[in-house]
Amino acid sequence: MLLRWIREVADEPLVVDPAARNIEARENTWSLSTSIDERGSLSAHEVVAAFEECASILRERVRSLGYDGQVTFYVWHDQQAGQLRCSTASLPGDELPFRSRVELDVPLAAIAEEFLDDARPGQGPWDDLRPASDGYVDETQPDDFVVRVWTADIGGTQ
User: Fold this and answer.
1) Which domain of life is it from (predicted)?
2) 3-class SS at 104?
3) Cβ neighbours of residue 75 under 8 Å, at least 6 residues apart?
4) Residue 132 falls within a domain, yes or no?
5) What pLDDT shows up at residue 99?
6) Is the pLDDT of residue 140 over 70?
7) DSSP letters along 26-91, please?
């Protein structure tokens, strides 16, 4: 199912509008997951091939829109949610809308392997939990948290 869902992303509605980045983010971002059993039956190579096929189709769709600006298709593993996520934005890869630090151009196979090898998707390690105290809310993110992202330039400027 996961491979089919990845490929289906290429057929979903696509918004490319630099003046409406919030709409782009809402319409073009997808969360993909699967069962532990299916994860064990998939290879990173299969996941990579599905995303590369998706990127190729999206590239053709962007060209057919006549848009000649920068467009990036990108994939990351959302460890907290236990999901692969992908999105398309009319931005260069180094300006993607993440609020944390980003490591760009991570090999897609590495992201796929991390997702497939996640033994407890969506569950953080118990060692990372801290007791809550009355009225205290820690709104900081760890300095070492980095979102690892694979990018593909799919814009019409190629």
Assistant:
1) Bacteria
2) coil
3) 51, 84, 85, 86, 108, 111, 149, 150
4) no
5) 86
6) no
7) HHH-EEE---HHHHHH--HHHHHHHHHHHHHHHHHHHHHTT--S--EEEEEEETTTTEEEEEEESS
Model confidence over 103-138: pLDDT tens digits? Answer: 998 999 999 999 999 877 666 555 655 666 655 555
Residues facing 83 on adjacent strands: 78
Q: Does residue 147 form part of some domain? A: yes
Q: Which amino acid is at 64?
A: S
In a domain, 134, yes or no: no
The angle formed by the CA atoms of residues 15, 74 and 19, to the nearest 5 degrees, is 35
End-to-end Cα separation, the chain, in angstroms = 32
Asked if the structure places residue 158 within a domain, the reply is no
User: What integer pLDDT is reported at residue 88 of this predicted model?
Assistant: 98
Q: What are phi and psi of 56, to 5 degrees?
A: -65, -45
Q: Looking at residue 129, what is its pLDDT?
A: 54
Q: How far is CA 58 from CA 1, 55, 101, 150, in A?
A: 20, 5, 26, 15
Beta-carbon contacts of residue 15 (< 8 Å; ≥ 6 apart): 23, 24, 27, 28
The predicted-structure confidence for 58-80, as pLDDT tens digits, reads as follows: 999 999 999 999 999 999 999 88
User: What is the band of 142 on the pLDDT scale with cuts at 50, 70, 90?
Assistant: low
